[in-house]
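Q: Please design a sequence for this.
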């Protein structure tokens, strides 16, 4: 029924259709070197993604990647004050803290 040329053409068409179906179910995510990515699947935290390119399968799931910056920003507060003995003093403070976020991404 099919000669060798027709069978090869059918095989190529099927292979291309399978490849397109597989690639359409994937999502490409790029995480920069100074970041990590918090992966949420259907609103639930799943894992932390390292820097680089990641391919994630969608397959009917709601995927969300929240970038997390790892570099710390230090704000130094300086104040010049005068003591009761009329001595000049310089005070410096560097407050440290961490903001925690829930699964929905809202602070608090």
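A: Design:
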């Amino acid at each position: 029924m099919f000669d060798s040329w027709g069978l090869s053409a059918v095989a190529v068409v099927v292979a291309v259709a399978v490849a397109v179906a597989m690639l359409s179910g994937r999502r490409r995510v790029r995480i920069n070197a100074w970041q990590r990515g918090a992966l949420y699947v259907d609103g639930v935290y799943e894992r932390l993604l390292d820097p680089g390119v990641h391919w994630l399968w969608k397959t009917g799931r709601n995927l969300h990647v929240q970038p997390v910056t790892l570099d710390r920003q230090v704000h130094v507060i300086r104040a010049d004050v005068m003591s009761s003995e009329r001595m000049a003093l310089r005070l410096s403070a560097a407050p440290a803290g961490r903001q925690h976020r829930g699964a929905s991404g809202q602070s608090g």
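Q: Thanks. Anything notable?
A: The mean pLDDT is 77. The beta strands are 26-31, 35-41, 44-49, 52-57, 63-69, 77-82, 88-93.
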